[in-house]
Structures
1.
Amino acid sequence: MLEFFRYIRDKIQVRRFDREMTILGFHSAAYILRCSVETRASKKPIALRFAQFAI
């Protein structure tokens, strides 16, 4: 697993990292993160969104 993260670290560079939305419930929570990265080789931008849920 660590080798995978090292591989990704060498291939991309994070340009922007924002919390887009946080949702709170009585017994749960969730948030969405927006991340803008670019590849190191070609400088092409990539937009990603991640969601995390906790119950």
2.
Amino acid sequence: MSQDFPSLKLTQANADLQLELGRLVLQSTQEQLELLQRRVEHNLSQARAGMDSLQHSASAGLPTGLSADFWAELAQRQWAQRQEEVEQIAQSQANFAAGVQQAMVCWWQAATHSLTPATGAAQ
């Protein structure tokens, strides 16, 4: 019966590792989906701004083109947004990698402990 405990402890360590990796993947996926949702919302807002600008020009009897300033500002905003997204993605990936590393360390410790004979247990 005492032979079963190391096996049980190792099984528990494996299950804990699987749960933690699953949690990390879920968290990373959720962060990516939130970033994608913000990007879609931002793009919709930019499209609305462009449509509003065209409608305003048309109703004022002005030529119905978007000004060079509009395009320059749009490009600057999109560049800033992309830089922010890259930073968020890099941070998310770093957090994921650190979490996986920590999970593996915990698993290694638990697995090693489960296979190490108990010293002083008879005392």
3.
Amino acid sequence: MEYIDGPTSAMSQDELEQELLRTMPLSFPCLVYVAYSGNPNAPERLVFTSHKQVAEWAAAMGLT
């Protein structure tokens, strides 16, 4: 996992990877992104998005 022109992280790369392994869902495929709180002292949150949710968004945008 690498940051590319993103905000400064309150968590180290190792902490983010440990959180990813701890919270990853049982079903795949999925997308994951780091949600920043905007507070430099608050930890980031990993958000997982399921294949079903992505398909629903694509359908809503007429991309299916």
4.
Amino acid sequence: MFVLNPKASESTLSYAFRLARFNGLLTVPFFYKYILLKNGGFVSSKKLAGKLYDLIGESHSVLFEEVTKRTQDILNNHRVSRYPIVDSEGYFPDDEKVYEKYDKTIRYCPTCILEQHHWHGHSWLKRDWLYNHRCLVHEKKMLSIGETSDELGLNIFDTFKYVFDGKLVGFEENYARINNQYESRPGILAPCVLVDYFTSTRRNGYFDFKEYECSFSSLNSLFYQYLNCFPSNEKEALRQYLFSSVDTCSKEGFYFYKARKPCIECPHKKYCLYNKDDTILRPIDEMDVESILEFVFQCSCLPEHISERQLTVYSDLITHVNDFFEPLSYEADTINWLITLMHSTYSTHSEFISKGESSPKFDNIRREPISGLLVLTLRRERVNSSYRVVPLPRNFEKHVKKYVEKRFNGKFSLNNPLVASKSGLKSIYPGDLNKLIRKSIKLFNAVPVEGLNLHSIRDAIAASAIVAGANMQYVTKSSGLAYSQLQRKDVLPIESRLPFTLM
């Protein structure tokens, strides 16, 4: 068997298709059993991984490990639930089976496909096409395999071949004669790289939070989630670290990247594929760095219906709510702190306030010992969800210090409520918080009534973060939602009049 090297941006489904086709294994039964179902849905990732193991698992173990990671769509097995589609009326269906149906969508950019053929002689499907609806290269809406199948009157198998062959009717000349298809080096990042990066950038904290304990795989996922939720300043810092502290070698068609430290005492070596006996390391170069950054920071885009004007109007609303009350008052401190919590977690306000006999406290915050990052345990009780761990931005503890000094006279206790009542002894009551919010937003007439709430503010915060470089799937996971509210067409309603401005 001739074993192809996967493209750095390629999805597992695409690689399996190309591998089988090149080796004469691609039949109709093979396709529907291991790649896509007859209705266009995804085949079980376990079934696909099992078949790939039969084909390349023993002879090319490193390649197999890397390719099968991509069945999770998001890096390093950090799977994020994806329910991106609404029904024809713009609402989410209640039936979970409908969600499953909508979730199974293969999309492609016809311009990218044609450029791939022009510059590389063949095409492939990118991983980011699985969780984006617009091409990040050409900024155009992508097409789905299902839509193309219906339009051409072909079955899914023939449609897949049609797309891969690049004979896309109506798009023959619709691509640039320049190479937009920059393809980074297919690489494997050793576990020690992010561990060493976060260790080297660790900062001292102000408070003695309890230690956060988790498995190493969860820790690795937490680091990826942090970088993709709060990429500001991190990308340049990681770039500098890579040049100064990481080496690479080539192995089985992949570039392997590891921290410039001895492996013999590394506590994470059992999770590592690097074999120091048969490789020669070299310092990484500019293309290596760009490849790693592209691998770590996963770009995503907002749905088309969220406009720049909507974000501007809701940014004005957030500023208005933050500045409405008298400075240094209890009301101002509470609202400012609540908005800070929402900015730091993308979560709904209801997770931070009183819930009957129990209420979130500072004890819900833990410190991860390697990185020094703070994480917050949250739970959406209305939908009976499980607890989740949300990474907090590096500057979060400064905000905690400011809030403690104002509301608790500088006396920090893990038993303090996360959002305190006026007395400071208990968590704020939901009714009291609602009064504050209604008082502060009722004069903002650029947003209709249905958009004047903290849920819309949370959605605006999340959308603005994605525009600034955060990944939509990771932000969705932090928010605790099974699907993203941002896919609803009316998620950020605004009036046609000009945004409200304070006099």
